[in-house]
Amino acid sequence: MPADVTQFWSTLGRQRLTVETAGIAETWTAPVAQLRAPNGFGEELWLTEIPETVLAIQLSGTDVRKCAGKGSGLTSAGRGYAATLQPKGTRNEFQADGPCVFAHIALSDALIDGASERLGIAPMSGLLRSDVVFDPCPQLNGAALDYVRRALCARAPPTALEMEGRALFLLDRVLALHVRSRPNGPMRGGLAPRQLRRVTDFIREHAAQDLLLDDLAALVGLSPTHSARAFRDSTGVPPHRWLTNQRIACARELLEAGDLPLAEIALACGFADQSHFTMTFKKATALTPGAYRREARQ
After folding, report:
1. Burial class (CB in 10 A: 0-12, 13-18, 19+), 28
2. How many domains does the chain have?
């Protein structure tokens, strides 16, 4: 992600806003910033050219109003979790007269153009609509809200693989507002049996690592977007879910085999910490790791 967007968020953080970011150190393809404006915001935050395309979504608080350009005068009133696409290079002039919480999802040119390629259309970076303001599209708003909530979930932090898959899904929703064409030709269908074996074996062998879609795509000679979709078509679950399932399987084996401390099992299987391990394991099995170990030994 270009330094411009981190500088942009840092500037906002010096303007009486509280800024919490996720995905920068982890080099996610689409990092997130949550911004809290306890006293609202106005002209002090306006820019003549936004440095990176962002998909903004209001999370709570006072209605936000667009003050200039396409969509001028529109507000987020009555639109629930209202998403607004702010293309790189466009004016950024919004106002809130009271407390407000919103989030930015940074969309790089490379990410946008990669999604465009999958759709079989010309690169869309620099060509995105600037009139997608407080968009009422439930699919876009839902995808943006899910992305932000997952990104900011500290109790069960997501993997880079999960967020990359979610970013590609989100870009599908964004570009659906620009074109009507659908993925064509070889973009549909699952992996060949040999390809699927190669990918699933790799995930099993490297389940403790923070894998990326690029790692999996390289195994089968496909683009990250195509490989992710093909994997889901073949298995019924996205790659990050398969990875989580393998980590759970690894944890089951270690819990059944001996008395290794839960914190060590968590790290050995790729979980962020013991708390993350416990939460994920219980969600998958309906038992805490400790309870599972006790039952396994009865």
Report:
1. buried
2. 3
